[in-house]
Amino acid sequence: MKIDRKSHVPVYWQIKESILKEITSGKLKPGDKILSEPQLKEKYGVSRLTARSAVTEPVNEGYLVRKQGYGTYIQKPRIENSQERFRGFKSDMEDKGFSVRSEILETENIFAPDFLYTSMDLGKDDKVFKIKRLRFANNEPIVIHESYIPSVLCPDILQFNFEEESLYSILSSKYKKIILNATEHLEAISATNETASYLEIKRGAPILYIQRTSFIEDNKPFEYSRSWYRGDRYIFDVHLKRQHNQE
Known about the structure:
six-stranded antiparallel beta sheet
């Protein structure tokens, strides 16, 4: 590509569009390294500031990612979760064409932690099953998922292999428990050392933290879950509908 210096389009924008065209055409693929800023400066005969601006915008828009000490690379497309209906991670990812696997981090039968008392209508003497897993899509760690289920509702659930089987499939097929609705709380947080280690990201990297309380018939709380999603690999969409007669 040649720079049109007579164009009303800024030079940095022309370079940026050239980079994006190579991405959308498939010439540059996820994980490929692009030219460094000094190389762009030399190739197009522009200033270092112009070259930097041409790269910074695609970085901010999520097309590129800078890796300190290594260079700038084509970002992997983020996984999009559209909240139109209740779905588990496994079925959602498989429908998008990803291979899915899980690694068990913890499974235990414990007394309910105090943060469950209100949301799950439990007391200190009630026991819950805790199931904590690291979930992968195409062998890349995407989310740490931690579930709490009242022990009385699903006796012996820990006998199942949650690395191979879906929790929600087990709940419906073995225990005849169907989750009808759920409430969620979303928050942007920074990765702790532990979270960063599991998700293979840097400490302080952005995390999408989701707390969910799920309900079965009679609006009975059934599951409380906490999830830590990689902010660089996951997009959470919510679809809203306007109510009639509402301004």
